[in-house]
Amino acid sequence: MIEIVGLKKILDDTVVLNGIDLKIEKNKTTVVIGESGCGKTVLLKHIIGFFKPDEGEIFCDGERIDTLSWKGWNALRRKMTMVFQNSALFDWLSVYDNVALPLREQLNLPEKEIAEQVEEKLGMVGMAGQNKKMPAELSFGMQKRVSLARAMILNPEYILYDEPTTGLDPIIANSIIELFSAFKKTYHTTSLIVSHDISIVFKIADKVALMKNGSIIFQGSVDDLGKEENSYIKKFISR
Q1: Residue 182 near residue 124, CB atoms below 8 Å
Q2: Is 162 helix (H, G, I), strand (E, B) or coil?
Q3: Domains plus CATH for the chain?
Q4: 234 DSSP β-pair partners
Q5: Judging by DSSP bridges, how do beta strands 190-195 and 207-212 pair with one another?
Q6: Which of 19, 92, 95, 193 has the fewest CB atoms within 10 Å, measured from its CB?
Q7: What does the pLDDT look like over 6-55, one tens digit per residue?
Q8: Alpha-carbon distance 29 to 15, whole Å?
Q9: Is the dihedral of CA 107, 111, 114, 116 positive or negative?
Q10: What is the rounded distance in angstroms from the CA atom of residue 169 to the CA atom of residue 122?
Q11: CA nearest 99: which of 75, 74, 124, 80?
Q12: Which one, of 62, 27, 31, 61, lies nearest residue 44 by Cα?
């Protein structure tokens, strides 16, 4: 599992993370919810190594990872990947080359094997036959699907999702959430999703944590969240 202990971060003289303690359990989906600006994305960026903690520690499968070297992070990212809010596809690469990129960067595979794996993952996300298209030719929802295929191409153990349904209409958002469930069932992935969309919690979460002003004010099961009497929590989940 991933374990975060006492994580603190100050950016531009503002306390963004204020002593975060959180466990992301193996083969489960943890959803971190909270209003925009509460620190959710900054938390993700610490787990994936984009930020270093001012205080605190982060562990993955018992290994402390916040102090890893660049080489160590490259090795870790074979089993941990992130799906960005804006999809983060490379505009100058085709759908095929975007999805193939991690295989080409991390593994020394023949192109035939790369092609087979790319086709498999694109098929899983409903993008079969779209290999030659460029990102600009795709809708936002289709770009999300390609970014999911790219995230899954190395068969990671851990997937981090940053606001995965933002900007999508409800039907497309539901189809993306269904893909998360399919990945978990097929590949036994461990997922961490950060979002301000409370509906994700009730559709997919095994565990939920609620952030406010850089702190986690609740973590536990979805059932326990629904029983909370805290006025802020009740207002948030009834939106």
Answers
A1: yes
A2: strand
A3: 1-77+200-239 (3.40.50.300)
A4: none
A5: unpaired
A6: 92
A7: 999 999 988 999 999 999 999 899 999 988 888 888 999 999 888 999 99
A8: 27
A9: negative
A10: 21
A11: 124
A12: 31
